[in-house]
Amino acid sequence: MINKQLLLIYFYLLIYICLSSGVILYNKWVLSPKYFKFPFPITLTMIHMGFSGVVAFLLVRVFKVVAPVKMTFQIYATCVIPISAFFASSLWFGNTAYLHISVAFIQMLKALMPVATFLMAVICGTDKLRCDLFLNMVLVSVGVVISSYGEIHFNVIGTVYQVTGIFAEALRLVLTQVLLQKKGLSLNPVTSLYYIAPCSFLFLFVPWYLLEKPGMEISQIQLNISIFFSNALCALALNFSIFLVIGRTGAVTIRVAGVLKDWILIALSTIVFPESTITGLNILGYAIALCGVVMYNYLKVKDVRASNQLPADSIPERATKEWKLDKKSSDIYTGDGNNSNNVGNKAGAAASESIVVDEEAPLLPSSRLSYISRSQVSSHTA
Question: Which residues cross the membrane (predicted)?
Protein backbone atom coordinates (compact mmCIF):
# COMPACT_ATOMS: atom_id res chain seq x y z
CA MET A 1 0.00 0.00 0.00
CA ILE A 2 2.81 2.39 0.84
CA ASN A 3 4.50 1.74 -2.49
CA LYS A 4 1.24 2.25 -4.37
CA GLN A 5 0.55 5.51 -2.54
CA LEU A 6 4.04 6.80 -3.24
CA LEU A 7 3.74 5.88 -6.90
CA LEU A 8 0.39 7.66 -7.07
CA ILE A 9 1.88 10.80 -5.50
CA TYR A 10 4.77 10.74 -7.95
CA PHE A 11 2.27 10.29 -10.76
CA TYR A 12 0.31 13.38 -9.63
CA LEU A 13 3.54 15.37 -9.38
CA LEU A 14 4.54 14.25 -12.86
CA ILE A 15 1.18 15.37 -14.23
CA TYR A 16 1.58 18.76 -12.54
CA ILE A 17 5.12 19.25 -13.87
CA CYS A 18 4.15 18.19 -17.40
CA LEU A 19 1.01 20.35 -17.52
CA SER A 20 2.67 23.41 -16.02
CA SER A 21 5.67 23.20 -18.35
CA GLY A 22 3.43 22.40 -21.31
CA VAL A 23 1.10 25.35 -20.74
CA ILE A 24 4.01 27.80 -20.47
CA LEU A 25 5.66 26.51 -23.65
CA TYR A 26 2.27 26.41 -25.39
CA ASN A 27 1.57 30.04 -24.46
CA LYS A 28 4.99 31.11 -25.66
CA TRP A 29 4.49 29.28 -28.97
CA VAL A 30 1.06 30.84 -29.53
CA LEU A 31 2.17 34.39 -28.67
CA SER A 32 5.58 34.33 -30.34
CA PRO A 33 5.75 36.28 -33.62
CA LYS A 34 8.21 33.65 -34.89
CA TYR A 35 5.93 30.62 -34.55
CA PHE A 36 2.12 30.76 -34.32
CA LYS A 37 2.25 34.54 -34.80
CA PHE A 38 -0.61 35.58 -32.53
CA PRO A 39 0.93 38.51 -30.59
CA PHE A 40 -2.22 39.32 -28.62
CA PRO A 41 -1.64 38.35 -24.96
CA ILE A 42 -4.79 40.07 -23.65
CA THR A 43 -6.92 38.15 -26.15
CA LEU A 44 -5.34 34.85 -25.15
CA THR A 45 -5.89 35.60 -21.47
CA MET A 46 -9.52 36.53 -22.12
CA ILE A 47 -10.02 33.22 -23.92
CA HIS A 48 -8.68 31.42 -20.85
CA MET A 49 -10.90 33.40 -18.49
CA GLY A 50 -13.99 32.97 -20.64
CA PHE A 51 -13.47 29.23 -21.04
CA SER A 52 -12.76 28.73 -17.33
CA GLY A 53 -15.80 30.80 -16.37
CA VAL A 54 -18.10 28.77 -18.63
CA VAL A 55 -16.80 25.45 -17.27
CA ALA A 56 -17.17 26.68 -13.69
CA PHE A 57 -20.72 27.88 -14.40
CA LEU A 58 -21.67 24.47 -15.81
CA LEU A 59 -20.20 22.66 -12.80
CA VAL A 60 -21.90 24.95 -10.28
CA ARG A 61 -25.26 25.82 -11.84
CA VAL A 62 -26.03 23.10 -14.41
CA PHE A 63 -24.48 19.85 -13.19
CA LYS A 64 -24.41 21.01 -9.53
CA VAL A 65 -21.16 19.19 -8.84
CA VAL A 66 -20.10 22.09 -6.62
CA ALA A 67 -22.29 24.36 -4.51
CA PRO A 68 -21.87 28.13 -4.70
CA VAL A 69 -20.60 30.06 -1.70
CA LYS A 70 -22.94 32.47 0.09
CA MET A 71 -21.74 35.68 -1.51
CA THR A 72 -23.32 39.06 -0.75
CA PHE A 73 -23.01 42.03 -3.08
CA GLN A 74 -20.93 43.89 -0.51
CA ILE A 75 -18.40 41.06 -0.23
CA TYR A 76 -18.26 40.71 -4.00
CA ALA A 77 -17.73 44.43 -4.52
CA THR A 78 -15.16 44.91 -1.76
CA CYS A 79 -13.28 41.60 -2.03
CA VAL A 80 -13.77 39.69 -5.27
CA ILE A 81 -13.61 42.68 -7.63
CA PRO A 82 -10.26 44.07 -6.33
CA ILE A 83 -8.74 40.57 -6.28
CA SER A 84 -10.00 39.92 -9.81
CA ALA A 85 -8.52 43.22 -11.00
CA PHE A 86 -5.02 42.39 -9.77
CA PHE A 87 -5.38 38.81 -10.96
CA ALA A 88 -6.26 39.98 -14.47
CA SER A 89 -3.36 42.43 -14.38
CA SER A 90 -0.86 39.77 -13.37
CA LEU A 91 -2.02 37.51 -16.21
CA TRP A 92 -1.98 40.34 -18.72
CA PHE A 93 1.53 41.57 -17.87
CA GLY A 94 2.92 38.06 -17.47
CA ASN A 95 1.67 36.91 -20.86
CA THR A 96 2.86 40.11 -22.53
CA ALA A 97 6.38 39.36 -21.33
CA TYR A 98 6.45 36.32 -23.68
CA LEU A 99 6.54 38.72 -26.61
CA HIS A 100 9.85 40.22 -25.51
CA ILE A 101 11.92 37.78 -23.44
CA SER A 102 12.62 34.06 -23.41
CA VAL A 103 10.86 31.43 -21.31
CA ALA A 104 14.10 30.60 -19.51
CA PHE A 105 14.68 34.20 -18.46
CA ILE A 106 11.03 34.55 -17.39
CA GLN A 107 11.42 31.55 -15.09
CA MET A 108 14.52 33.11 -13.57
CA LEU A 109 12.69 36.38 -12.95
CA LYS A 110 9.91 34.46 -11.20
CA ALA A 111 12.35 33.81 -8.38
CA LEU A 112 11.39 37.36 -7.31
CA MET A 113 7.93 36.12 -6.31
CA PRO A 114 8.76 35.65 -2.60
CA VAL A 115 10.43 39.07 -2.55
CA ALA A 116 7.34 40.74 -4.00
CA THR A 117 5.00 38.83 -1.68
CA PHE A 118 7.08 39.65 1.39
CA LEU A 119 7.17 43.37 0.53
CA MET A 120 3.44 43.51 -0.16
CA ALA A 121 2.70 41.63 3.08
CA VAL A 122 4.83 44.06 5.09
CA ILE A 123 3.18 47.07 3.44
CA CYS A 124 -0.32 45.67 4.04
CA GLY A 125 0.53 44.74 7.62
CA THR A 126 0.08 40.96 7.31
CA ASP A 127 3.76 40.25 7.96
CA LYS A 128 6.50 41.87 9.97
CA LEU A 129 9.86 43.05 8.71
CA ARG A 130 12.35 40.53 10.06
CA CYS A 131 16.09 40.51 9.64
CA ASP A 132 16.38 36.85 8.58
CA LEU A 133 13.65 37.11 5.94
CA PHE A 134 15.01 40.44 4.71
CA LEU A 135 18.47 38.94 4.19
CA ASN A 136 16.91 36.10 2.19
CA MET A 137 15.10 38.64 0.03
CA VAL A 138 18.38 40.47 -0.57
CA LEU A 139 20.02 37.18 -1.59
CA VAL A 140 17.18 36.42 -4.04
CA SER A 141 17.36 39.91 -5.51
CA VAL A 142 21.13 39.72 -5.97
CA GLY A 143 20.74 36.38 -7.74
CA VAL A 144 18.11 37.76 -10.11
CA VAL A 145 20.28 40.82 -10.87
CA ILE A 146 23.24 38.55 -11.71
CA SER A 147 21.01 36.39 -13.88
CA SER A 148 19.66 39.46 -15.69
CA TYR A 149 23.17 40.79 -16.24
CA GLY A 150 24.11 37.50 -17.90
CA GLU A 151 21.05 37.48 -20.18
CA ILE A 152 22.18 37.78 -23.81
CA HIS A 153 18.82 38.91 -25.20
CA PHE A 154 17.96 41.22 -22.30
CA ASN A 155 14.91 43.37 -23.02
CA VAL A 156 13.89 46.18 -20.69
CA ILE A 157 10.25 46.22 -21.80
CA GLY A 158 9.77 42.48 -21.34
CA THR A 159 11.53 42.55 -17.97
CA VAL A 160 9.34 45.42 -16.73
CA TYR A 161 6.19 43.58 -17.86
CA GLN A 162 7.22 40.39 -16.06
CA VAL A 163 8.27 42.10 -12.82
CA THR A 164 5.07 44.17 -12.83
CA GLY A 165 3.05 40.98 -13.27
CA ILE A 166 4.88 39.39 -10.34
CA PHE A 167 4.10 42.30 -8.03
CA ALA A 168 0.47 42.35 -9.19
CA GLU A 169 0.20 38.64 -8.34
CA ALA A 170 1.85 39.22 -4.97
CA LEU A 171 -0.63 41.98 -4.15
CA ARG A 172 -3.47 39.70 -5.25
CA LEU A 173 -2.29 37.02 -2.81
CA VAL A 174 -2.01 39.46 0.08
CA LEU A 175 -5.44 40.91 -0.69
CA THR A 176 -6.83 37.38 -0.71
CA GLN A 177 -5.67 36.92 2.84
CA VAL A 178 -6.63 40.40 4.04
CA LEU A 179 -10.06 40.57 2.40
CA LEU A 180 -11.49 37.08 1.90
CA GLN A 181 -9.98 35.41 4.94
CA LYS A 182 -11.36 38.07 7.25
CA LYS A 183 -14.80 37.45 5.76
CA GLY A 184 -14.47 33.75 6.56
CA LEU A 185 -14.93 32.67 2.95
CA SER A 186 -13.42 29.44 1.69
CA LEU A 187 -13.21 29.02 -2.08
CA ASN A 188 -12.15 25.83 -3.83
CA PRO A 189 -10.79 25.91 -7.41
CA VAL A 190 -14.21 25.63 -9.05
CA THR A 191 -15.93 28.30 -6.97
CA SER A 192 -12.87 30.52 -7.39
CA LEU A 193 -13.22 30.31 -11.15
CA TYR A 194 -16.97 30.77 -10.87
CA TYR A 195 -16.65 34.14 -9.11
CA ILE A 196 -13.31 35.48 -10.32
CA ALA A 197 -13.01 34.40 -13.98
CA PRO A 198 -16.00 36.43 -15.29
CA CYS A 199 -14.89 39.51 -13.36
CA SER A 200 -11.32 39.18 -14.65
CA PHE A 201 -12.70 38.80 -18.17
CA LEU A 202 -14.53 42.12 -17.85
CA PHE A 203 -11.43 43.87 -16.51
CA LEU A 204 -9.44 42.62 -19.50
CA PHE A 205 -12.10 43.75 -21.96
CA VAL A 206 -11.26 47.46 -21.64
CA PRO A 207 -7.50 47.20 -22.42
CA TRP A 208 -8.32 44.63 -25.11
CA TYR A 209 -10.78 46.97 -26.79
CA LEU A 210 -8.30 49.87 -26.70
CA LEU A 211 -5.01 48.09 -27.40
CA GLU A 212 -5.58 44.85 -29.32
CA LYS A 213 -8.96 44.94 -31.03
CA PRO A 214 -7.97 47.61 -33.62
CA GLY A 215 -5.01 45.52 -34.80
CA MET A 216 -6.53 42.05 -34.95
CA GLU A 217 -9.04 40.23 -37.08
CA ILE A 218 -11.65 37.87 -35.65
CA SER A 219 -10.81 35.42 -38.44
CA GLN A 220 -7.45 34.84 -36.72
CA ILE A 221 -9.34 33.14 -33.88
CA GLN A 222 -12.06 31.50 -36.00
CA LEU A 223 -9.54 29.77 -38.27
CA ASN A 224 -7.59 28.37 -35.33
CA ILE A 225 -10.37 27.55 -32.88
CA SER A 226 -8.88 24.13 -32.12
CA ILE A 227 -5.57 25.71 -31.06
CA PHE A 228 -7.20 28.15 -28.65
CA PHE A 229 -9.57 25.51 -27.30
CA SER A 230 -6.77 23.05 -26.56
CA ASN A 231 -4.67 25.85 -25.05
CA ALA A 232 -7.49 26.90 -22.70
CA LEU A 233 -8.22 23.24 -21.87
CA CYS A 234 -4.60 22.66 -20.88
CA ALA A 235 -4.66 25.72 -18.59
CA LEU A 236 -7.88 24.46 -16.96
CA ALA A 237 -6.41 20.98 -16.51
CA LEU A 238 -3.37 22.54 -14.84
CA ASN A 239 -5.66 24.30 -12.37
CA PHE A 240 -7.21 21.06 -11.19
CA SER A 241 -3.90 19.19 -11.18
CA ILE A 242 -2.51 21.78 -8.76
CA PHE A 243 -5.42 21.25 -6.37
CA LEU A 244 -5.02 17.49 -6.73
CA VAL A 245 -1.31 17.66 -5.91
CA ILE A 246 -1.91 19.89 -2.88
CA GLY A 247 -4.49 17.48 -1.55
CA ARG A 248 -2.13 14.51 -1.80
CA THR A 249 1.18 16.05 -0.72
CA GLY A 250 2.52 18.68 1.65
CA ALA A 251 3.94 22.15 1.30
CA VAL A 252 7.57 21.01 1.16
CA THR A 253 6.88 18.39 -1.52
CA ILE A 254 5.04 20.78 -3.81
CA ARG A 255 7.80 23.36 -3.46
CA VAL A 256 10.48 20.85 -4.37
CA ALA A 257 8.38 19.80 -7.37
CA GLY A 258 8.08 23.46 -8.36
CA VAL A 259 11.82 24.01 -8.25
CA LEU A 260 12.39 20.82 -10.25
CA LYS A 261 9.78 21.96 -12.78
CA ASP A 262 11.54 25.31 -13.22
CA TRP A 263 14.87 23.67 -13.99
CA ILE A 264 13.22 21.24 -16.42
CA LEU A 265 11.33 24.08 -18.07
CA ILE A 266 14.46 26.18 -18.49
CA ALA A 267 16.21 23.25 -20.15
CA LEU A 268 13.21 22.41 -22.36
CA SER A 269 12.77 26.01 -23.47
CA THR A 270 16.27 26.08 -24.95
CA ILE A 271 15.41 22.97 -26.99
CA VAL A 272 11.93 24.01 -28.13
CA PHE A 273 12.97 27.60 -28.82
CA PRO A 274 16.59 27.48 -30.05
CA GLU A 275 16.86 31.28 -30.15
CA SER A 276 16.83 31.38 -26.33
CA THR A 277 20.28 30.69 -24.94
CA ILE A 278 21.50 30.31 -21.35
CA THR A 279 24.82 31.69 -20.12
CA GLY A 280 26.94 30.76 -17.14
CA LEU A 281 25.90 33.96 -15.36
CA ASN A 282 22.25 33.04 -15.92
CA ILE A 283 22.73 29.73 -14.16
CA LEU A 284 24.87 31.20 -11.37
CA GLY A 285 22.42 34.01 -10.65
CA TYR A 286 19.42 31.70 -10.70
CA ALA A 287 21.15 29.23 -8.38
CA ILE A 288 21.87 32.05 -5.90
CA ALA A 289 18.26 33.21 -6.11
CA LEU A 290 16.97 29.69 -5.51
CA CYS A 291 19.12 29.38 -2.39
CA GLY A 292 17.36 32.43 -1.02
CA VAL A 293 13.95 31.06 -2.03
CA VAL A 294 14.63 27.71 -0.34
CA MET A 295 15.73 29.42 2.87
CA TYR A 296 12.67 31.69 2.76
CA ASN A 297 10.33 28.71 2.36
CA TYR A 298 12.09 26.87 5.19
CA LEU A 299 11.68 29.81 7.57
CA LYS A 300 7.99 30.26 6.69
CA VAL A 301 7.26 26.56 7.16
CA LYS A 302 9.09 26.67 10.48
CA ASP A 303 7.02 29.68 11.58
CA VAL A 304 3.74 28.01 10.65
CA ARG A 305 4.62 24.77 12.41
CA ALA A 306 5.62 26.69 15.52
CA SER A 307 2.34 28.60 15.51
CA ASN A 308 0.39 25.35 15.16
CA GLN A 309 1.93 23.79 18.26
CA LEU A 310 -0.89 24.28 20.78
CA PRO A 311 -1.33 22.77 24.27
CA ALA A 312 -2.75 19.26 24.27
CA ASP A 313 -5.99 20.26 25.98
CA SER A 314 -6.78 22.78 23.22
CA ILE A 315 -6.38 20.34 20.32
CA PRO A 316 -9.88 18.76 20.51
CA GLU A 317 -11.50 22.17 20.66
CA ARG A 318 -9.47 23.39 17.69
CA ALA A 319 -10.22 20.22 15.72
CA THR A 320 -13.96 20.59 16.37
CA LYS A 321 -13.89 24.22 15.29
CA GLU A 322 -11.99 23.43 12.07
CA TRP A 323 -14.32 20.52 11.31
CA LYS A 324 -17.36 22.76 11.65
CA LEU A 325 -15.77 25.37 9.41
CA ASP A 326 -14.93 22.78 6.77
CA LYS A 327 -18.43 21.35 7.07
CA LYS A 328 -19.96 24.79 6.65
CA SER A 329 -17.90 25.57 3.57
CA SER A 330 -18.22 22.09 2.11
CA ASP A 331 -19.40 22.34 -1.48
CA ILE A 332 -19.22 18.86 -2.95
CA TYR A 333 -22.42 17.04 -3.84
CA THR A 334 -22.11 13.25 -3.89
CA GLY A 335 -24.22 10.29 -3.03
CA ASP A 336 -21.72 8.90 -0.55
CA GLY A 337 -21.48 11.69 1.98
CA ASN A 338 -18.95 10.00 4.27
CA ASN A 339 -16.40 9.31 1.56
CA SER A 340 -16.72 12.72 -0.02
CA ASN A 341 -16.33 14.49 3.30
CA ASN A 342 -13.26 12.46 4.18
CA VAL A 343 -11.63 13.21 0.87
CA GLY A 344 -12.58 16.87 1.02
CA ASN A 345 -11.32 17.30 4.57
CA LYS A 346 -8.06 15.52 3.76
CA ALA A 347 -7.48 17.72 0.77
CA GLY A 348 -8.36 20.83 2.72
CA ALA A 349 -6.02 19.93 5.55
CA ALA A 350 -3.15 19.36 3.18
CA ALA A 351 -3.97 22.47 1.24
CA SER A 352 -3.92 24.53 4.39
CA GLU A 353 -0.18 24.05 4.50
CA SER A 354 0.48 25.76 1.24
CA ILE A 355 -0.72 28.17 -1.38
CA VAL A 356 0.50 27.20 -4.79
CA VAL A 357 1.16 30.09 -7.04
CA ASP A 358 1.27 29.01 -10.62
CA GLU A 359 1.11 31.83 -13.05
CA GLU A 360 -0.28 29.56 -15.71
CA ALA A 361 -3.26 28.62 -13.56
CA PRO A 362 -6.16 31.04 -13.19
CA LEU A 363 -7.14 29.67 -9.79
CA LEU A 364 -7.64 31.20 -6.41
CA PRO A 365 -6.88 28.55 -3.81
CA SER A 366 -8.79 28.51 -0.54
CA SER A 367 -8.63 31.87 1.14
CA ARG A 368 -8.07 30.18 4.52
CA LEU A 369 -4.74 28.80 3.37
CA SER A 370 -1.48 29.94 4.85
CA TYR A 371 0.59 32.08 2.55
CA ILE A 372 3.88 30.41 3.40
CA SER A 373 4.44 29.27 -0.16
CA ARG A 374 3.30 32.31 -2.06
CA SER A 375 6.55 31.93 -3.83
CA GLN A 376 8.11 29.51 -6.10
CA VAL A 377 6.12 26.56 -7.23
CA SER A 378 5.00 29.06 -9.71
CA SER A 379 4.84 29.24 -13.13
CA HIS A 380 -0.17 31.97 -13.38
CA THR A 381 0.38 33.53 -16.33
CA ALA A 382 -2.72 31.91 -17.73
Answer: 7-26, 38-63, 75-93, 99-121, 133-154, 160-180, 192-211, 223-245, 252-273, 279-299
